[in-house]
Amino acid sequence: MKSSLVSHELTMSSREIADLVECRPDTVKVTMERLRERGLITFTSLTEKSHGGRPGVVYRVGKRDSYVVVAQLSPEFTARLVDRWQELESRSAQPAVDLDDPAFLRSALLQYTERVIQLESTIAEQAPAVEFARAIRNTNDAIPIGKMAAVLGFGRNTFFARLRGDYILMDDNRPYQHYIDRGYFRVIENVWIDAAHEPHPTFRTLVTGAGQVYLQRRYGGASGASR
């Protein structure tokens, strides 16, 4: 018995991407809009019901462009995106099951066995790098942005300007709230008193362990052209 395959282009919604990278759906949509304005991705707008049953507008994007979106939002979640696409493609390409056909069952078992072996090999190869990133991400040590700039090979002012240009920092060099929510930055607030005894708040932005991993992956190879 021949298997029947579903033939259509798979897409992923902005809501699914938000779930994968642990980010607000509206933040994902804003990022996608900016990337489309720069000509980097394309997407379609659709009205879909949320988990609560209320309709809302979502953006649906193809496989290649979904990687661009996740790379912009949070590269460390790329593995989750890979797993999600494998799940979608597996569902799409799943052949019709004929339990009465021994040849089909043998073929299916062989395919799944090979896939498991391949995944186990990939996990083993990536384990040291994943463990290193996890150790840094979980550290309690937070460092100033100026020190992070030096680690990446940027000048301090150049790096601050780059982060503002990429909408990670605001004009006052404080991070946007969604980057704080992800645990990438910590803002320390102090107050100094002037000669007239007037209080003035000051803010200092620190990069957490998770933020160090994020900035290293995003800017680790970009300093040479930015000095």
From TrEMBL:
This is Phage antirepressor protein. Residues 120-219 form the Antirepressor protein C-terminal domain. It comes from the Bacteria. One of its GO terms (molecular function) is DNA binding. Pfam families: ANT (PF03374).
